[in-house]
Design a protein that fits this description.
alpha/beta; Trna Endonuclease, Chain: A, domain 1; about 15% strand; elongated; binds S-adenosylmethionine
Length: about 300
């Protein structure tokens, strides 16, 4: 324990602490020295087997990713810090919305996450992008469709999985929940499958780009009109429709006739409604968006 000894001034107190090895000097020149404190200095009670000091994530928290089983980051921090060191590997084989891998990344561990749904993967991908961790630069995704035929197969097998996967081609944040949950059903999102956010200059408000993905047959001009309606209802800046098949001429006309979004930051206009095919996205032909392309 440290005594509270009577020291005449701060400098003498600091010298005394240094003398007894309680000052940690930074290796880098100009760094700030730190006071070294040990567990025994603090008193209190050690963490017990039952942890009640970490609360759930509040319902309105911006950290909520819309995944029903999301755990608080502090809980995963404690588990990872208690059981591994920097550079170790953390594996979450049912990683859901990815809290374990985000915290492993923050704590400088290597990580592997496994999940069976494209919803989970696209949620993780968009959250990692917000943490400035990008694929393929910083990590790899194994097992996703990489060709048009594989995308077609996914669309045939499961329309929701296709939608979630295709949103992840733009790192968009999906709106939905895993199979069986009410949120995953169409209608709950009022026309939005997912969205991207961006800011203009110093304005603290986020602007949104609504994303819809269509993998089925019979996609037509009415889907473009629906998207225009949704963009207007949500007061979003723009809307992007991702399609599996080539858009028809009436679809292109409908999109061309929509207004423009004018970006004060970039001093130019962007087509308010854009249609992009899965094939184009797989070939890395991105829609025009009012922020630097993070995918290149
Ligand atoms: C309880 S949730 C996620 C829990 C996560 N570790 C967390 O803390 O938020 C379980 C996850 O396991 C995934 N899952 C279920 N069966 C799976 C399987 N056979 N292989 C991989 N993931 C699976 C589900 O899609 C779901 O996202």
């Amino acid at each position: 324990m440290l005594g509270k000894g009577p020291f005449p001034d701060v400098q003498t107190a600091l010298d005394k602490l240094d003398e007894i090895g309680r000052i940690s000097w930074p290796k880098k020149e100009g760094g700030t020295p730190m006071f070294m404190q040990y567990k025994d200095d603090l008193g209190g009670v050690d963490v017990q087997d039952l942890w009640t000091d970490i609360g759930p994530i509040p319902p309105q928290s911006p950290k909520r990713l819309g995944y029903p089983t999301q755990k608080p980051a502090a809980l995963l921090d404690r588990i990872i810090e208690a059981s591994s060191d920097e550079g170790d590997w953390v594996l979450d084989p049912f990683c859901g919305c990815g809290t374990a891998i985000f915290e492993a990344n923050e704590l400088k561990r290597n990580w592997i996450g496994i999940d069976i749904t494209h919803l989970a993967i696209s949620i993780m991908k968009s959250a990692l992008r917000e943490m400035k961790v990008y694929t393929p630069r910083n990590y790899q995704i194994i097992g996703e469709p990489t060709t048009f035929n594989e995308a077609q197969g996914l669309a045939k097998a499961d329309k929701y999985q296709f939608q979630w996967w295709s949103l992840s081609l733009l790192d968009a944040r999906p709106i939905g929940a895993p199979e069986g949950s009410k949120v995953g059903k169409k209608g709950a999102d009022r026309g939005r499958d997912g969205y991207l956010t961006f800011k203009e200059g110093n304005d603290p408000n986020f602007r949104r780009i609504i994303i819809q993905a269509k993998g089925g047959e019979n996609v037509g001009a009415s889907d473009v009109r629906d998207l225009i309606g949704t963009v207007n209802n949500w007061k979003a800046a723009m809307g992007i429709l991702i399609t599996l098949d080539e858009p028809t001429e009436p679809m292109k006309t409908e999109a061309r006739d929509a207004e423009y979004y004018e970006s004060p930051t970039w001093g130019r206009k962007y087509p308010k409604i854009q249609i992009v095919t899965v094939k184009q996205l797989l070939e890395k032909k991105w829609p025009e968006m009012p922020f630097p392309n993070p995918f290149q």
